[in-house]
Amino acid sequence: MEISQGRLRADIEANAAFGAVDADEGRGRTLLTGSDADRRARERFVDRLRDADLDVRVDAVGNVAGRWTPPGCDPGAAPVAIGSHLDSVPRGGIFDGPLGTYAGLEAVRAMQDADVAPGRPVDVVAFTEEEGARFGIGTLGSSVAAGGRDVADALDLVDDEGVTLRERLDAIGFRGDDGIDPASWSAWVELHIEQGTRLTDAGADVGVVEAITGITNCEVAVAGEADHAGSTPMYERTDALAAGAEFVRDVERAAEEVAADRESAVATVGQGTIEPNARNIVPGEVRFQLDLRDTDAGTMDRLVERCRTSLARLERTRGVETDIDRYRTSPPTPMADRCVGAADDAAAARGADAVRLHSAAVHDTANLADATDVGLLFAPSVDGASHSPREWTDWEDCATAAGVLAATVRRLAAGD
Amino acid sequence: MEISQGRLRADIEANAAFGAVDADEGRGRTLLTGSDADRRARERFVDRLRDADLDVRVDAVGNVAGRWTPPGCDPGAAPVAIGSHLDSVPRGGIFDGPLGTYAGLEAVRAMQDADVAPGRPVDVVAFTEEEGARFGIGTLGSSVAAGGRDVADALDLVDDEGVTLRERLDAIGFRGDDGIDPASWSAWVELHIEQGTRLTDAGADVGVVEAITGITNCEVAVAGEADHAGSTPMYERTDALAAGAEFVRDVERAAEEVAADRESAVATVGQGTIEPNARNIVPGEVRFQLDLRDTDAGTMDRLVERCRTSLARLERTRGVETDIDRYRTSPPTPMADRCVGAADDAAAARGADAVRLHSAAVHDTANLADATDVGLLFAPSVDGASHSPREWTDWEDCATAAGVLAATVRRLAAGD
User: Fold this and answer.
1) Strand B206-212 versus strand B354-359 pairing type
2) pLDDT class for A320, splitting at 50, 70, 90?
3) Dihedral-angle region of residue A122 (phi above 0 means left; psi in -120 to 50 means alpha; beta otherwise)
4) E-only strand ranges, B276-363
5) CB pairs under 8 A, 24+ apart, for A380-383?
6) Do A5-211+332-412 and A214-330 agree at the fold level?
7) What percentage of chain A reaches a pLDDT higher than 70?
8) Which of A247, A270, A290 sits opposite B282 (nearest CB)?
9) Where in the numbering of this chain does the Peptidase M20 dimerisation domain appear (chains A, B) (predicted)?
10) Which residue of A195, A246, A291 is in closest CB contact with B249?
11) Chain A with chain B: Cβ pairs closer than 8 A
């Protein structure tokens, strides 16, 4: 079973032309859901599915699937599904999404070329709006398919220009009426770029994900008193920024302590505002946006608890008023043992150097875990660059990972 | 020598009508240099100076002075000058500036009414653009008058609408050609609102300023590495905000330690930016604006040194790159002993409860210290509110402070 690196590369490069942007370094693209670039990318994908004799379906939110029913297989058997997404963030890279989507198709073509005929059908899928770059909600298409979000609610979402997803999909001819139902799948496997440096650091060919991290977002407010920077002596101040600075340090310290035992635990204060933010006024309020992640839900709870403890201490020691709103939690998602096992075996069989790791970002796979057994593979990212034209995966690494994907699917679709 | 509280109040209230703004609480005004409100405020001031038989001069940058030559005095003797400014910040209060300006005139009227005839002329002065709200440079008019800034340079300054100070003054008819030369004065005394709570905390009637604080402004940059908030383990981060948080705490701690010995020392990180300021990206850079103040230049240097030490430590311990730019320093200004002494004696003679203090904000008086002996008096500010419609000084306190001003001028202008 041979992967054609040239065929896979040609697909990814052709796809990269849709929404291509100028970049000083690397190759970038902006592919927003419902744009003309999206229409052309989807039409080409459909053409390529049909070129490989796959039966194409498009569902109500524009998710696209091509079904291969191998000769001699039971067409009623639960299929194995593979794929990813085609959309990008603004000025994103050319591999994030398209690699997994076209590697899925290449896996089918490789099986076809080698006369490998699994006992189950194989679906090759591209989900709508994974990045959330146009409608603000990431992994949108897969969440609808997996039953986690209502179709009508999704179609009613409005972008920054006041246009609904329904209108965007109608405009490009990709609001379909076919069914794409992950609950009917035997398993799902996605190949994605790592967006980190663990694979390149380890010199590995492919990553076998054991769990997708959970993410908790909190908004934290610290209120002090805005005062004149000259006439307010130090002992009379209730400086919201000074208090907030202690909080930022406490969050970092808490995460470092937890991460000493489990590297997957991270906490980030990435965003903040100061009020009134004037050089000669003692800050009256600061607000922070927090991003806390781990593959263990209890650890995430513990990190939030450490934030609360810090704020309670600041209220006592500094007289500030504080508030923490844990407004969103996406729980950790363990991968199915049989998918992880199949991927391990596939890598070994193909002589690929695989390492186990966790996914520090959320992917469509996390939604699909609610409906079926899921697996996730990573290809190496040069320098870990992501969501940038500098994002890169060497073509040889793309092909190697696609080969592991094909061998994984072959095992999962072998038929029981 | 009686102060007429009603006459002083009528002047301040009439002046408050120019540029008056609506406010839920208090009384506010926006009086920007060269506006129609400024023209009307100046014209009324000139009328009131003339009503008291003062000879009015207007200099090249619009500073206005009215000279009283008391009967029997030597008209060639160096005058004593008193006054303040009429302009305001956007939505400022009605006392900041006008109190000192009209109390100066009231002091002259009180001496006239009481047939007090000092041996020196008295100038009552309103300086242009003290707040810097239109042309970005505070205490502009007094800096030109005192020789610290070139007239042509000042007139060429451009506001946000692209209009020069020259054009603004021409438009309201207040670009004059008279001389107003602080170097020719025997002394200068300004009455201003405190903009703090030390007087009300002490239950005092008037503050006798010993020194005006120096101010140093620094811009600080801390550069780390922007990274993905999920895929970058804690131990691989160079988080600019976490480092910046340590810096903010260090600045606060340094100021608290210094302020344990001298309350006038304050340090404020009031303004900051985070780049890229996204919830799911480890901050790559933070920038802070610092405001460090004290009445002792050596202490200010020491505070800046503590900032540098903190940044050097962060470079070592966290691998960030840092930069500190001390881009502006206005040195501390001691008041002249004879002005402070005259004010103390004046307060005692009038039965006013006076306290010695420092000025935590810069005033026109700081510029004039380069040219003549200066003194500065404070009237109590309710709740310390300043640069806000909530700014307030009780009318009785205005009159008491004006009385101390009049008695101070009487002593300084007695003639040697």
Assistant:
1) parallel
2) very high
3) beta
4) 281-282, 285-294, 321-330, 333-334, 354-359
5) A380/A193, A380/A194, A380/A199, A380/A200, A380/A204, A380/A205, A380/A206, A380/A207, A381/A193, A381/A194, A381/A195, A381/A196, A381/A197, A381/A199, A381/A200, A382/A200, A383/A197, A383/A200
6) no
7) 100
8) A270
9) 213-312
10) A246
11) 176
pLDDT of B416 > 80? The answer is no
Distance from CA of B332 to the nearest CA of A (A): 13
Residues of B whose CB is below 8 A from A272: 241, 274, 277
Q: How close A142 comes to chain B (CA, Å)? A: 21
ipTM for the predicted complex: 0.85
Q: What is the DSSP string of B74-125?
A: -TTSPPEEEEEE----TTB-SSTTHHHHHHHHHHHHHHHHTT---SS-EEEE
Domain boundaries defined on chain B: 5-212+333-412, 214-330
Architecture of domain A5-211+332-412: 3-Layer(aba) Sandwich (3.40)
What amino acid occupies position A91? R
Our CA angle for B90, B65, B30, nearest 5°, is 10
pLDDT of residue B415: 61
Tell if the CB–CB gap between A233 and B263 is shorter than 8 Å: yes
Q: Do A268 and B282 touch (CB under 8 A)?
A: yes
CB spacing of B242 vs A265 below 8 angstroms: no
Q: Which helix (H) or strand (E) holds A67?
A: strand A64-68
pLDDT on residue A415 = 61
Over residues B394-398, the mean pLDDT reads 98
- Give the pLDDT confidence of B205-246 residue by residue, as tens digits: 999 999 999 999 999 999 999 988 988 899 999 999 999 999
pLDDT for position A228? 86
**A217-243 pLDDT tens trace:** 999 999 999 988 988 899 999 999 999
Q: How many CB atoms lie within 10 A of CB A331?
A: 13
Q: What percent of chain A has pLDDT over 90?
A: 94
Secondary structure (3-state) at A291: strand
Closest CB to B293: pick one of A215, A230, A266: A230
Q: What is the CATH number of domain B5-212+333-412?
A: 3.40.630.10
Report the range of poorest mean pLDDT among A191-195, A232-236, A309-313, B180-184.
Answer: A232-236
Helix (H) or strand (E) holding B256: helix B240-259
- Residues A263, B213: C-beta atoms closer than 8 Å: no
Asked if A266 lies within 8 A of B293 by C-beta distance, the reply is no
| Alpha-carbon gap: A185 to the closest alpha carbon of chain B (Å) | 29
Say if the Cβ atoms of A270 and B241 lie within 8 Å.
yes
Residue B359's φ and ψ, nearest 5 degrees, are -95, 125
* Mean pLDDT, rounded, for B59-71: 97
A280–B272 CB contact, under 8 Å: no
Q: What is the pLDDT of residues A190-212, one digit of tens each?
A: 999 999 999 999 999 999 999 99
For residue A326, the chain B residues in CB contact (below 8 A) are none
The answer to whether the CB atoms of A277 and B272 lie below 8 A apart is yes
Distance CA A113, CA A46 (A): 20
**DSSP category for residue A347:** H
CATH class of B214-330: alpha beta
What tokens does A414 get?
């072998």
Instruction: Give the number of residues written for chain A.
Output: 416
Phi, psi of B393 (to 5 degrees): -135, 130
Cβ atoms within 10 Å, residue B173: 12
